[in-house]
């Protein structure tokens, strides 16, 4: 039975500063490094055949730390922008609290926590889903069906899209799902490629 491991990158500098990050290439903090190391402790006993990550440094750095810590720095790593965080467009770099003062709490909440409302120049979660899932189906799912164990280190909203797909969640249900940084979520698939178990 194949396993899929999902890890949200460790805390980034703009996570710490409460800024919209999106596609901005911001690295992880010292706390983020420690989160990556904690993820590695959980994953150390697992067999991992191949890893995927986004085109953004915070996810790549987290993955590198995990692979080094578990003693598997040479497994194949595929980097693709299909796994990037949701783009927040013109909001990227702005402090979330200051943005709420400017546009109102209700508008900012709609941009952050709705399924299909698009921030100025950015992507909705629906847009992110429509980017991530075709890539998963074409590139990652075939490996899982072959029995390979796959690690994906990515971002809150790209992983939220995958979780929505894997667990058949509604738009309302997925918006309630929080994904902690640096804590692996494991999906185990049966021979028919159905999720037979989920471990957090």
Automatic annotation (TrEMBL):
- Asked if the keyword Isomerase belongs to this entry, the reply reads yes
Binding annotation for substrate: 8-15, 21-22, 58, 85-88, 96, 112-113, 156-157
Q: Which PROSITE patterns match?
A: PG_MUTASE
Instruction: Kindly state which keywords UniProt assigns to this record, in alphabetical order.
Output: Gluconeogenesis, Glycolysis, Isomerase
Provide the site residues for: Transition state stabilizer. 155
What InterPro entries does the record point to? His_Pase_superF_clade-1, His_PPase_superfam, PG/BPGM_mutase_AS, Phosphogly_mut1
Q: Does Secreted count among this protein's keywords?
A: no
State the Pfam families in the record: His_Phos_1 (PF00300)
Pathway of this protein? Carbohydrate degradation; glycolysis; pyruvate from D-glyceraldehyde 3-phosphate: step 3/5
Annotated EC: 5.4.2.11
Q: Which family does it belong to?
A: Belongs to the phosphoglycerate mutase family. BPG-dependent PGAM subfamily.
Function, in words: Catalyzes the interconversion of 2-phosphoglycerate and 3-phosphoglycerate.
The record's section on PANTHER family has: PHOSPHOGLYCERATE MUTASE
Q: What is the recorded name of this protein? A: 2,3-bisphosphoglycerate-dependent phosphoglycerate mutase
- Source species: Chryseobacterium rhizosphaerae
């Amino acid at each position: 039975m194949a396993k899929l491991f999902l890890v949200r990158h460790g805390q980034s500098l703009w996570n710490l500063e409460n800024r919209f990050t999106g596609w901005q290439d911001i690295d992880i903090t010292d706390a983020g490094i420690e989160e990556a190391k904690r993820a590695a402790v959980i994953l150390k006993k697992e067999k991992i055949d191949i890893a995927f990550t986004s085109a953004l440094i915070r996810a790549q750095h987290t993955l590198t730390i995990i692979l080094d810590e578990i003693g598997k720095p040479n497994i194949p790593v595929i980097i693709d922008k299909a796994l990037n965080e949701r783009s927040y467009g013109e909001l990227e770099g702005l402090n979330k609290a200051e943005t709420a003062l400017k546009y109102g709490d209700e508008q900012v909440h709609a941009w952050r926590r709705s399924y299909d409302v698009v921030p100025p120049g950015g992507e909705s979660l629906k847009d992110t889903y429509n980017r991530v899932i075709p890539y998963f189906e074409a590139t990652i799912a075939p490996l899982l069906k072959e029995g390979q164990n796959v690690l994906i280190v990515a971002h809150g909203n790209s992983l939220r899209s995958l979780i929505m797909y894997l667990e058949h969640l509604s738009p309302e249900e997925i918006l309630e799902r929080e994904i902690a940084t640096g804590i692996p979520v494991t999906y185990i698939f049966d021979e028919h490629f159905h999720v037979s178990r989920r471990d957090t």
